[in-house]
Amino acid sequence: MLPHLYLSLTVLAALASTLVDADINVVCGKDSVRISWRISPQLVPYAARLFLGSCMPSRLKVMPDGEGEAQFNYQLADCKFKKLIKGKRIIYQNELTYRPQAKPKPAAFVYPIECIYKRPEVWVPQFMNPGSGVSDGRGGLVFHMALLNEQLTAVASTNVIPLGSFMPLWAAVDQKSHQPLLLLMEECVAATTPVLQPGSHVYPIISNKGCLLESKKANAMFLPRYHSSAIILYLQSFKLGLGEEIYIHCKLVAWDPEVLDESKKACHYVKESGRWELLDDPFQSNLCSCCDSTCTSRSKRGVEGERHSWSYQTVLGPLIIVDRSDMKTHNSSSSSLL
Protein backbone atom coordinates (compact mmCIF):
# COMPACT_ATOMS: atom_id res chain seq x y z
CA MET A 1 0.00 0.00 0.00
CA LEU A 2 2.73 2.47 0.94
CA PRO A 3 4.63 2.18 -2.39
CA HIS A 4 1.40 3.03 -4.22
CA LEU A 5 0.88 6.05 -1.95
CA TYR A 6 4.38 7.36 -2.56
CA LEU A 7 3.97 6.84 -6.29
CA SER A 8 0.70 8.78 -6.27
CA LEU A 9 2.23 11.72 -4.40
CA THR A 10 5.22 11.72 -6.76
CA VAL A 11 2.92 11.92 -9.77
CA LEU A 12 0.91 14.75 -8.22
CA ALA A 13 4.04 16.72 -7.39
CA ALA A 14 5.42 16.16 -10.89
CA LEU A 15 2.26 17.67 -12.38
CA ALA A 16 3.16 20.96 -10.70
CA SER A 17 5.91 21.44 -13.29
CA THR A 18 3.20 21.80 -15.95
CA LEU A 19 1.90 24.88 -14.12
CA VAL A 20 5.07 26.94 -14.43
CA ASP A 21 3.75 28.67 -17.56
CA ALA A 22 0.17 28.62 -16.30
CA ASP A 23 -2.50 30.29 -18.44
CA ILE A 24 -4.35 32.37 -15.85
CA ASN A 25 -6.77 35.21 -16.55
CA VAL A 26 -7.93 37.52 -13.75
CA VAL A 27 -10.84 39.97 -14.00
CA CYS A 28 -11.43 42.21 -10.99
CA GLY A 29 -15.00 43.42 -10.57
CA LYS A 30 -16.43 46.06 -8.26
CA ASP A 31 -16.49 43.73 -5.25
CA SER A 32 -15.72 40.35 -6.82
CA VAL A 33 -13.14 38.53 -8.90
CA ARG A 34 -13.41 36.12 -11.85
CA ILE A 35 -10.45 33.87 -12.57
CA SER A 36 -10.02 31.28 -15.31
CA TRP A 37 -7.10 28.85 -15.01
CA ARG A 38 -6.25 26.61 -17.99
CA ILE A 39 -4.73 23.31 -16.90
CA SER A 40 -3.26 20.32 -18.75
CA PRO A 41 -5.24 17.12 -19.38
CA GLN A 42 -3.00 15.36 -16.84
CA LEU A 43 -4.05 17.78 -14.11
CA VAL A 44 -7.80 17.69 -14.81
CA PRO A 45 -8.45 14.67 -12.52
CA TYR A 46 -6.77 16.61 -9.69
CA ALA A 47 -8.65 19.92 -10.10
CA ALA A 48 -9.97 19.57 -6.55
CA ARG A 49 -6.42 20.31 -5.40
CA LEU A 50 -6.53 23.81 -6.93
CA PHE A 51 -7.44 26.69 -4.61
CA LEU A 52 -8.01 30.43 -4.55
CA GLY A 53 -7.09 31.16 -0.96
CA SER A 54 -9.43 28.82 0.92
CA CYS A 55 -11.86 28.33 -1.99
CA MET A 56 -12.01 25.45 -4.48
CA PRO A 57 -12.95 26.08 -8.14
CA SER A 58 -16.56 27.13 -8.53
CA ARG A 59 -16.65 25.31 -11.89
CA LEU A 60 -14.44 22.97 -13.96
CA LYS A 61 -14.86 22.99 -17.72
CA VAL A 62 -13.22 20.21 -19.78
CA MET A 63 -12.23 21.18 -23.34
CA PRO A 64 -12.48 18.92 -26.45
CA ASP A 65 -8.68 18.55 -26.46
CA GLY A 66 -8.76 17.25 -22.87
CA GLU A 67 -7.46 20.44 -21.26
CA GLY A 68 -9.42 21.91 -18.39
CA GLU A 69 -10.46 25.38 -17.29
CA ALA A 70 -10.88 25.87 -13.56
CA GLN A 71 -13.07 28.88 -12.88
CA PHE A 72 -13.18 30.85 -9.64
CA ASN A 73 -16.07 33.31 -9.26
CA TYR A 74 -16.09 34.77 -5.76
CA GLN A 75 -16.70 37.93 -3.77
CA LEU A 76 -13.64 39.72 -2.40
CA ALA A 77 -15.08 39.14 1.06
CA ASP A 78 -14.66 35.37 0.51
CA CYS A 79 -11.68 33.02 0.19
CA LYS A 80 -9.64 34.85 2.86
CA PHE A 81 -8.64 37.79 0.67
CA LYS A 82 -6.41 40.27 2.48
CA LYS A 83 -7.45 43.92 2.22
CA LEU A 84 -4.76 46.59 2.41
CA ILE A 85 -5.05 50.35 2.17
CA LYS A 86 -1.93 52.08 0.85
CA GLY A 87 -2.16 55.79 0.19
CA LYS A 88 -4.86 56.32 -2.43
CA ARG A 89 -5.21 52.60 -3.26
CA ILE A 90 -7.28 49.76 -1.83
CA ILE A 91 -5.61 46.41 -2.54
CA TYR A 92 -7.08 42.92 -2.23
CA GLN A 93 -4.52 40.10 -2.23
CA ASN A 94 -4.75 36.32 -2.42
CA GLU A 95 -3.03 33.31 -4.01
CA LEU A 96 -3.90 30.60 -6.48
CA THR A 97 -2.29 27.37 -5.33
CA TYR A 98 -1.92 23.75 -6.37
CA ARG A 99 -1.63 21.50 -3.32
CA PRO A 100 -0.74 17.86 -4.05
CA GLN A 101 -0.92 17.20 -0.32
CA ALA A 102 -3.18 18.56 2.40
CA LYS A 103 -2.06 21.34 4.73
CA PRO A 104 0.25 21.89 6.51
CA LYS A 105 2.28 20.56 3.58
CA PRO A 106 3.39 23.47 1.36
CA ALA A 107 1.80 24.20 -2.00
CA ALA A 108 3.66 22.95 -5.06
CA PHE A 109 2.59 25.98 -7.10
CA VAL A 110 1.69 29.52 -6.01
CA TYR A 111 0.41 32.35 -8.21
CA PRO A 112 -0.28 35.77 -6.59
CA ILE A 113 -3.64 37.44 -7.21
CA GLU A 114 -4.11 41.16 -6.70
CA CYS A 115 -7.03 43.51 -7.33
CA ILE A 116 -6.24 47.21 -6.97
CA TYR A 117 -8.85 49.94 -6.67
CA LYS A 118 -8.66 53.70 -6.29
CA ARG A 119 -9.82 54.79 -2.87
CA PRO A 120 -12.87 57.10 -3.17
CA GLU A 121 -11.87 60.76 -3.19
CA VAL A 122 -14.71 61.61 -0.80
CA TRP A 123 -13.94 59.33 2.09
CA VAL A 124 -13.99 61.81 4.99
CA PRO A 125 -16.43 60.40 7.56
CA GLN A 126 -19.58 62.53 7.63
CA PHE A 127 -20.34 62.02 11.30
CA MET A 128 -18.43 64.66 13.23
CA ASN A 129 -20.97 64.79 16.04
CA PRO A 130 -21.08 63.64 19.68
CA GLY A 131 -23.46 60.77 18.90
CA SER A 132 -21.08 58.84 16.66
CA GLY A 133 -19.01 57.24 19.35
CA VAL A 134 -17.63 57.67 22.83
CA SER A 135 -17.21 61.39 23.47
CA ASP A 136 -16.59 63.87 26.26
CA GLY A 137 -15.32 67.39 26.78
CA ARG A 138 -11.90 68.38 28.12
CA GLY A 139 -10.58 71.94 28.18
CA GLY A 140 -13.33 73.12 25.83
CA LEU A 141 -12.65 70.17 23.47
CA VAL A 142 -14.90 67.24 22.63
CA PHE A 143 -13.30 63.86 21.89
CA HIS A 144 -14.90 61.12 19.80
CA MET A 145 -14.11 57.49 18.99
CA ALA A 146 -16.00 55.04 16.78
CA LEU A 147 -15.72 51.88 14.71
CA LEU A 148 -16.11 52.66 10.99
CA ASN A 149 -17.58 50.52 8.24
CA GLU A 150 -15.36 48.82 5.68
CA GLN A 151 -15.68 51.72 3.22
CA LEU A 152 -14.63 54.27 5.88
CA THR A 153 -17.72 56.35 5.09
CA ALA A 154 -19.81 56.00 8.26
CA VAL A 155 -20.02 54.40 11.68
CA ALA A 156 -20.22 50.59 11.43
CA SER A 157 -23.75 49.20 11.54
CA THR A 158 -22.72 46.20 13.64
CA ASN A 159 -20.30 45.49 16.45
CA VAL A 160 -19.72 41.89 15.28
CA ILE A 161 -16.38 41.54 13.46
CA PRO A 162 -15.10 38.42 11.62
CA LEU A 163 -11.76 37.15 12.90
CA GLY A 164 -8.94 38.35 10.64
CA SER A 165 -10.90 41.20 9.06
CA PHE A 166 -9.95 44.82 9.64
CA MET A 167 -11.41 47.19 12.22
CA PRO A 168 -11.03 50.87 11.23
CA LEU A 169 -10.99 52.72 14.56
CA TRP A 170 -11.63 56.46 14.16
CA ALA A 171 -10.86 59.10 16.75
CA ALA A 172 -11.29 62.85 16.49
CA VAL A 173 -11.40 66.01 18.55
CA ASP A 174 -13.72 68.98 17.95
CA GLN A 175 -11.39 71.99 18.01
CA LYS A 176 -14.05 74.72 18.19
CA SER A 177 -12.19 78.01 18.81
CA HIS A 178 -8.83 76.38 19.55
CA GLN A 179 -5.81 76.71 17.29
CA PRO A 180 -5.35 73.69 14.95
CA LEU A 181 -4.53 70.63 17.04
CA LEU A 182 -3.00 67.26 16.23
CA LEU A 183 -4.83 64.24 17.61
CA LEU A 184 -2.63 61.35 18.74
CA MET A 185 -3.28 57.92 20.20
CA GLU A 186 -0.73 57.72 22.97
CA GLU A 187 -1.73 54.32 24.33
CA CYS A 188 -4.38 51.71 23.42
CA VAL A 189 -5.14 48.27 24.80
CA ALA A 190 -7.91 45.76 24.22
CA ALA A 191 -9.56 44.20 27.26
CA THR A 192 -12.51 41.96 28.06
CA THR A 193 -13.96 44.49 30.54
CA PRO A 194 -15.20 48.09 30.10
CA VAL A 195 -13.21 49.16 33.16
CA LEU A 196 -9.55 48.29 33.53
CA GLN A 197 -8.67 46.59 36.81
CA PRO A 198 -5.22 45.61 38.17
CA GLY A 199 -5.86 41.99 37.16
CA SER A 200 -7.52 42.71 33.79
CA HIS A 201 -6.41 40.61 30.83
CA VAL A 202 -5.23 43.19 28.28
CA TYR A 203 -3.88 43.02 24.73
CA PRO A 204 -1.46 45.93 23.99
CA ILE A 205 -2.04 47.73 20.69
CA ILE A 206 -0.31 51.12 21.06
CA SER A 207 2.30 51.84 23.71
CA ASN A 208 5.55 53.70 24.33
CA LYS A 209 4.08 57.17 23.63
CA GLY A 210 2.44 56.46 20.26
CA CYS A 211 4.17 53.34 18.89
CA LEU A 212 1.71 51.03 17.10
CA LEU A 213 3.02 47.70 18.41
CA GLU A 214 0.42 45.76 16.45
CA SER A 215 1.94 46.97 13.16
CA LYS A 216 5.12 45.04 13.91
CA LYS A 217 3.67 41.78 15.24
CA ALA A 218 0.57 41.70 13.01
CA ASN A 219 -1.19 43.72 10.28
CA ALA A 220 -2.04 47.25 11.40
CA MET A 221 -1.28 50.81 10.38
CA PHE A 222 -2.33 54.43 10.73
CA LEU A 223 -4.16 55.59 7.60
CA PRO A 224 -3.19 58.91 5.97
CA ARG A 225 -4.96 61.75 7.76
CA TYR A 226 -7.78 63.74 6.20
CA HIS A 227 -7.41 66.34 8.98
CA SER A 228 -4.90 66.87 11.78
CA SER A 229 -7.69 66.65 14.37
CA ALA A 230 -8.64 63.05 13.42
CA ILE A 231 -6.81 59.75 13.13
CA ILE A 232 -7.80 56.29 11.85
CA LEU A 233 -6.18 53.16 13.23
CA TYR A 234 -6.55 50.32 10.73
CA LEU A 235 -6.38 47.27 12.97
CA GLN A 236 -6.77 43.59 12.10
CA SER A 237 -9.08 41.73 14.47
CA PHE A 238 -7.43 39.33 16.93
CA LYS A 239 -8.33 36.31 19.07
CA LEU A 240 -8.56 38.02 22.47
CA GLY A 241 -11.94 37.15 23.97
CA LEU A 242 -13.05 35.39 20.79
CA GLY A 243 -16.86 35.32 20.73
CA GLU A 244 -17.09 37.51 23.84
CA GLU A 245 -17.33 41.25 24.39
CA ILE A 246 -14.08 43.21 24.19
CA TYR A 247 -13.37 46.90 24.72
CA ILE A 248 -10.71 49.20 23.25
CA HIS A 249 -9.23 51.52 25.89
CA CYS A 250 -7.26 54.47 24.47
CA LYS A 251 -5.56 57.57 25.78
CA LEU A 252 -6.16 60.33 23.21
CA VAL A 253 -3.98 63.45 23.20
CA ALA A 254 -4.66 66.77 21.43
CA TRP A 255 -1.35 68.48 20.79
CA ASP A 256 0.45 71.28 18.94
CA PRO A 257 1.02 69.95 15.37
CA GLU A 258 4.25 71.95 15.12
CA VAL A 259 5.84 70.15 18.06
CA LEU A 260 6.59 66.47 17.56
CA ASP A 261 9.08 64.54 19.64
CA GLU A 262 9.59 61.04 21.04
CA SER A 263 6.74 61.51 23.50
CA LYS A 264 4.23 63.04 21.05
CA LYS A 265 4.04 61.05 17.83
CA ALA A 266 2.17 58.44 15.79
CA CYS A 267 4.51 55.70 14.55
CA HIS A 268 3.82 52.47 12.70
CA TYR A 269 6.16 49.74 11.51
CA VAL A 270 6.50 49.33 7.73
CA LYS A 271 7.41 45.70 7.09
CA GLU A 272 8.50 46.34 3.50
CA SER A 273 11.28 48.69 4.64
CA GLY A 274 11.84 47.06 8.03
CA ARG A 275 11.66 50.35 9.91
CA TRP A 276 9.37 52.54 11.98
CA GLU A 277 7.76 55.48 10.18
CA LEU A 278 6.26 58.71 11.51
CA LEU A 279 2.72 59.13 10.19
CA ASP A 280 2.76 62.93 9.95
CA ASP A 281 6.24 63.42 8.51
CA PRO A 282 8.21 60.36 7.30
CA PHE A 283 11.31 62.58 7.04
CA GLN A 284 11.26 62.83 10.87
CA SER A 285 10.94 59.06 11.36
CA ASN A 286 14.02 59.19 13.58
CA LEU A 287 11.53 60.15 16.33
CA CYS A 288 10.24 56.57 16.05
CA SER A 289 13.63 54.92 16.56
CA CYS A 290 12.88 54.61 20.28
CA CYS A 291 9.84 52.39 19.62
CA ASP A 292 11.94 49.28 20.21
CA SER A 293 13.25 50.65 23.53
CA THR A 294 11.84 53.49 25.69
CA CYS A 295 10.52 56.80 24.35
CA THR A 296 10.97 59.99 26.38
CA SER A 297 10.61 63.68 25.59
CA ARG A 298 13.74 65.42 24.32
CA SER A 299 12.15 68.71 23.31
CA LYS A 300 12.28 71.61 25.80
CA ARG A 301 9.48 73.32 23.90
CA GLY A 302 7.50 70.12 24.18
CA VAL A 303 7.96 70.03 27.96
CA GLU A 304 6.96 73.68 28.26
CA GLY A 305 3.90 73.08 26.09
CA GLU A 306 2.49 70.22 28.19
CA ARG A 307 0.07 72.64 29.80
CA HIS A 308 -1.33 73.35 26.31
CA SER A 309 -2.11 69.69 25.62
CA TRP A 310 -5.33 67.88 26.43
CA SER A 311 -5.74 64.16 27.00
CA TYR A 312 -8.74 61.93 27.45
CA GLN A 313 -9.17 58.27 28.40
CA THR A 314 -11.81 56.74 26.11
CA VAL A 315 -13.41 53.30 25.86
CA LEU A 316 -14.94 51.89 22.68
CA GLY A 317 -17.16 48.83 22.79
CA PRO A 318 -18.44 46.33 23.20
CA LEU A 319 -16.95 44.69 20.09
CA ILE A 320 -17.42 40.98 19.40
CA ILE A 321 -14.80 39.17 17.29
CA VAL A 322 -16.03 35.83 15.98
CA ASP A 323 -15.04 33.06 13.59
CA ARG A 324 -16.70 33.57 10.20
CA SER A 325 -18.68 30.37 10.73
CA ASP A 326 -20.37 32.02 13.74
CA MET A 327 -21.25 35.30 11.98
CA LYS A 328 -24.94 34.55 11.33
CA THR A 329 -25.62 33.63 14.95
CA HIS A 330 -24.01 36.79 16.34
CA ASN A 331 -25.40 39.15 13.70
CA SER A 332 -28.95 38.20 14.63
CA SER A 333 -28.33 39.36 18.20
CA SER A 334 -25.72 42.09 17.73
CA SER A 335 -26.12 45.36 19.59
CA SER A 336 -25.51 48.88 18.36
CA LEU A 337 -22.08 50.33 19.02
CA LEU A 338 -21.93 53.37 21.30
UniProtKB/TrEMBL annotation:
What Gene Ontology terms describe where this protein resides (cellular component)?
extracellular matrix
Enumerate the spans annotated as ZP domain. Answer: 27-274
Per the UniProt entry, the signal peptide is 1-22
InterPro entries, per database record: ZP-C (IPR055355), ZP-C_dom (IPR042235), ZP_dom (IPR001507)
Keywords, A to Z, come to:
Disulfide bond, Signal
Does Signal appear among the keywords? Answer: yes
What processes in GO biological process is this protein linked to?
binding of sperm to zona pellucida; egg coat formation; positive regulation of acrosome reaction
Give this protein's Gene Ontology molecular function annotations.
acrosin binding
Q: Could you tell me what this protein is called?
A: Zona pellucida sperm-binding protein 3-like
